[in-house]
Amino acid sequence: MMTGIADSAAGLDLSQYDEEQVRLMSEMCILVDENDRAVGAASKKQCHLMENINKGTLHRAFSVFLFNSKNELLLQQRASEKITFPECYTNTCCSHPLATPDELEERDQLGVKRAAQRKLEHELGIRPEQVPLDKFQYLTRIHYVAPSDGMWGEHEIDYILFVRADVDLAVNENEVKSTRYVSMDQLKTLIAEADQTGTKLTPWFKLIDTNFLYKWWARLDDLDALVDRDTIHRLL
């Protein structure tokens, strides 16, 4: 039976945040246990409050890495309006499947892939026909926790999805401050120099970069051999 969590922050004052980003905080995410079994639903706000994270609240998420025909990775810089991790550089698109029948479907990770397609269009204006569901390659899952500030944070089981496509961008400036394509060497330089240049990176992107990204990137033509459907990597 799907359950939720008590809205202990129902009266939380969010007036200092962007109106559209506050509206999105009402979306219903999928609560999971540590084995990624769906156990309920809660608002995005409830899932991202450190008060609840510290009590064990865990939700399902995804991270998309989109590569063009030159094998360059599309990065985004999160908008200043974002409530969590504003202005941080990260992979192409990071978000959450919602607690709806279409995005709860677990067969072949279809629910997560539908959510990824939806958010690529919402954040970057990438049309669904440019990233059809059967072009998403699921690789594995990571479980991590990361504070954003004193109030907000992340505690997710994150599905890693790769997709190769040449796409047209129409950036939603309320979501994304900037975009850029990078080669593998360019990304390594960006990350190595991040502290020196003041470049902020999302914690999940740093974890994926450190533990997995380059071995996958080097084998974009042979990703099937690297798929790990069963493991949830605990990067806690």
TrEMBL record:
Annotated keywords: Isomerase, Isoprene biosynthesis, Lipid biosynthesis, Lipid metabolism, Magnesium, Metal-binding, Steroid biosynthesis
Cofactors: Mg(2+)
GO molecular function: isopentenyl-diphosphate delta-isomerase activity; metal ion binding
Any one GO CC term of the record: cytoplasm
One GO term (biological process): steroid biosynthetic process
PROSITE patterns: NUDIX (PS51462)
Catalytic class of the enzyme: isomerase
Matching SUPFAM superfamilies: Nudix
Domain Nudix hydrolase: 57-207
InterPro entries: IsopentenylPP_isomerase_typ1, NUDIX_hydrolase-like_dom_sf, NUDIX_hydrolase_dom
UniProt cross-references to Pfam families, sorted A to Z: NUDIX
Assigned protein family: Belongs to the IPP isomerase type 1 family.
Name of the protein: isopentenyl-diphosphate Delta-isomerase
Organism, scientific name: Coemansia javaensis
